[in-house]
Amino acid sequence: MATTILPFYQRKHKHYGYDYRSLDSRSLVKKYTSKSSSTKRSSSSLEKSSSTLHAGKFSPCAKRVCHCFEEEVPEYTVPPFRGSEGEEEQVKPKAREFLYGTKLREMENEIAKLRKSAHERVDTMALRRMEEERAAVQRHVREDTMCRAPEFLVRLRSHTVWENSFVKLFCTVQGYPTPLVRWYKDDVYIDQTSEPAKYRMDSYYGVHSLEINRCTTNDTAQYTALAFNIHGEAASNATVIVKRFRGDDEPYHSVLLPLNLPLLSPPIFTHIDIQYSEKFGVSFGTEGETLILTCRMILTPNLNLLQPEAVWYRDDVEIKKSKWAAMFYNDCTATLTLPHLNKDDEGLYTLRLITRGGISQHSAYVFVRDADAPVVGAPGAPMDVAFHDANKDYVILTWKPPNVTKESPVFGYFVDRCEAGTDNWVQCNDAPVKICKYPVTGLFEGRSYIFRVRAVNKSGISRPSRATDAVTALDPADLARLQTFYFDESRHIIVSQDDLEGDVKPPGKPANIHVAETSKNYIVLSWDPPEPRGREPLKYYIEKTMAGSASWQRVNQEIAARSPRFAIFDLAEGKSYEFRVYAANKFGLSEPSESTGPVVVQEHIEIPSPPSDVRAARNTKHSVVVHWIASKTDKELIGYYVDSCLLGTNDWQPCNHRPVKYTRFVVHGLKNGHKYMFRVKTVNALGISEVSQESEPILVQAALTAPSSPYGITLLDCTNNSMTLGWKVPRFTGGSDIIGYYMDHREVTDLHWHESNVKQISGRVHKVENLKEGSFYEFKVSAVNLGGVGIPSESSRAFKCEAWTMSEPGPPYDMTFCEIRSNSLVILWKAPIYTGSSPVSGYTVDICETSSEEWRTVTEKAVSTRYLKVTKLEEGHSYIFRVHAVNAAGQGRPSEPSEPVLIQVKPGTKEITAGVDAEGNIYLNFECHEMTDVSQFAWGKSYEEITDFSKVHIETEGDKSKLIFKHPDMSDLGTYSVAVSDTDGISSSYVLEKEELERLMALSHEIRHPTIPLKHELSYEVFDKGEVRFWLQVESVSPNATCRFVVNDLELADSKEHRITFDKSTGMIEMVMEQFTSKNEGTYTVQIEDGRAKNQSSIVLIGDAFKAALAEAEFQRKEYLRKQGPHFSEYIHWHVTEDCEVELRCKIANTKKETVFNWYKDSVTIVPEEPPNPQTGDCKLHIPEFSKKDMGEYKMTLKDDKGQDITVLEVAGKVYEEIVHELSKISGLSASELKIKCTPEGIRIQSFLKYYMEDMKVFWYHKESKIASSEKMRIGGSSDQVWMQICEPTDKDKGKYTMEIFDGKTSHKRYLDLSGEAYAEAYTEFQRLKAAAFAEKNRGKVLGGLPDVVTIMEGKTLSLTSTVFGDPTPDVTWLKNDKDLELNDHHIATLEQGKYASLTIKGVTTEDSGKYGINVRNKYGGETIDVTVSVYKHGEEIPVIKRGVQPPPVQKTSPHAEASQPAEPPKSSKVGRRK
Question: Which end of the chain is more exposed for a tag (fewer CB within 10 A), N or C?
Answer without folding.
Answer: C
